Amino acid sequence: MLKLGEIFPNIKAETTLGPVQFYDWMETSWCLLLSCNFNQVSASELVGLRNRLLERNVKVIVVSHNSLHSLNECISDIQSKTNHLIQYPIIADEKYSLALDLDLFESELYLEKDAFKTITAAFLIDPNKKLQFQMAYPPELALNFEEIIRVIDALQAVNGKCLATPAEWTAGGELLIVSKYLPHNKLKKQFPHMTEKVLPSGSIERHTYL
C-alpha cells in the first residue's frame, strides 16, 4: 500500500469519458480518487460532491470493477431517471489490475458471486502528485463525503504553511502555528492574526486564522 507523501502512480486507464493518462488529466489540480460501489445513489451523491470539489480545485475520478459497456449503460439509466449528468470519469477496472496496484482488497483475496470483493476507499493526491490522504472502509459501507471535504479544506489550509489543525477543526476555524524556530517578528509578519497563550509549563501556544 502507498504511504502518505509517496508519489501516486501515473495511471493509464479506459474510462467512461475516454482514455486517461492520470498526470495529464490531473494537470495542476488536486485529485480525489474513489473506489466505491457505483450505483444510482452514489452517482447522485458524487454529482453534488463534484461541484464542491471543483470549488476547491479538486478533480474526482472513480474506480469501478465493471466493464466499460455496463458502466455506460448504468450512466444512461441514471441520467434518464435523475437528470444528473455524470461529468467525472469512471475507470473500468474490469480485470482488477488497478485494484491490485492500489491494494483495494480485504486481507484475504476471495471470490463472491464470481467477483472479487474490494474495499471502499478514497485517495487524495496533491498537484505534485503526492498522496496526502487515504481512507478505507469495509466494502459494505459507503464513504463519508463530509469528512473528505473537511480533510481537503484542512490540507489546503495547512499545506506548506507551518500550520496544523486542532481536533474537530472545520473550515474557517482557528489553526495552530507549529513552527518553533522562526523569530517572533517573522511569525507576526507571516501570520498577522496570530495570538499567543502562555501555558502553565511556560511554553507558548500560538494560534491564527487564515
Our measurement of the CA-to-CA distance between the termini, rounded to an integer number of angstroms, reads: 34 Å
| Beta-strand residue percentage | 25-35%
Q: For the largest beta sheet, what order do the strands appear in spatially?
A: 5-4-3-8-9
CATH-wise, what's the superfamily of the largest domain? Glutaredoxin
Count of separate DSSP helical elements: 6
Integer tally of domains: 2
Poorly predicted runs are none
CATH fold topology of the largest domain: Glutaredoxin
Give the CATH level 1 class of the largest domain: Alpha Beta
Mean pLDDT: 86
Pfam families: AhpC-TSA
Domain Thioredoxin: 2-157
Protein name: Thioredoxin domain-containing protein
Function: Thiol-specific peroxidase that catalyzes the reduction of hydrogen peroxide and organic hydroperoxides to water and alcohols, respectively.
Notes on the structure:
- The chain is 29% helix and 26% strand.
- The protein is built from six helices and 13 strands.
- It has helices spanning 22-26, 40-54, 68-82, 97-101, 145-158, 184-190, and strands at 12-15, 18-21, 30-35, 58-64, 90-92, 111-112, 115-116, 120-125, 131-137, 163-164, 175-177, 195-198, 204-208.
- Strand 6 and strand 7 (115-116) form a beta hairpin.
- With 210 residues, it is an alpha+beta fold.
- It has two domains: 6-143, Glutaredoxin, CATH 3.40.30; 163-208, Antioxidant, Horf6, Chain A, domain 2 (2-Layer Sandwich), CATH 3.30.1020.10.
- This is Thioredoxin domain-containing protein.
- Residues 2-157 form the Thioredoxin domain.
- Belongs to the peroxiredoxin family.
- Thiol-specific peroxidase that catalyzes the reduction of hydrogen peroxide and organic hydroperoxides to water and alcohols, respectively.
- Pfam families: AhpC-TSA.
